[in-house]
């Protein structure tokens, strides 16, 4: 397995992964996100590649904490293709994210997971994450 920074040419496979996660993302959207992220010092996407196929990704974002010292890491997407699950891909991507966040001097990392993703919740707990808060969302569309 190879872990590397997502590149523009990975966009079509990333679209498929995001669709698997339940998000209907267009190729244009993913390409524009990758273009933005490649110019950002506080955002990064890593992909996992097995046999020349992108089988997983993790998106990482760094924010400054207002109420406390330090920065916080945030994972907004973590997905492993159905055929590559339970093979260490998700764990490897989380470790890659941890290294990124530590280099960015983050004091913590958080991930949000939909209520219905019970298997993902078990995975995060096994990886050392604690369920800590409730989130409220207001949509503008």
Query: Based on DSSP secondary structure assignment, what is the total number of beta strands?
Result: 5
- What CATH architecture do you see? 3-Layer(aba) Sandwich
Structural class: alpha+beta
Work out the count of structural domains.
Answer: 1
Global mean pLDDT:
92
CATH superfamily: Gcn5-related N-acetyltransferase (GNAT)
Please list the strands of the largest sheet in the order they lie side by side: 1-2-3-4-5
The first-to-last residue Cα distance is 39 Å
In sequence order, what are the helices and strands, one letter per element? EHHEEEHEH
Portion of residues within helices: 25-40%
Q: What's the CATH class label?
A: Alpha Beta
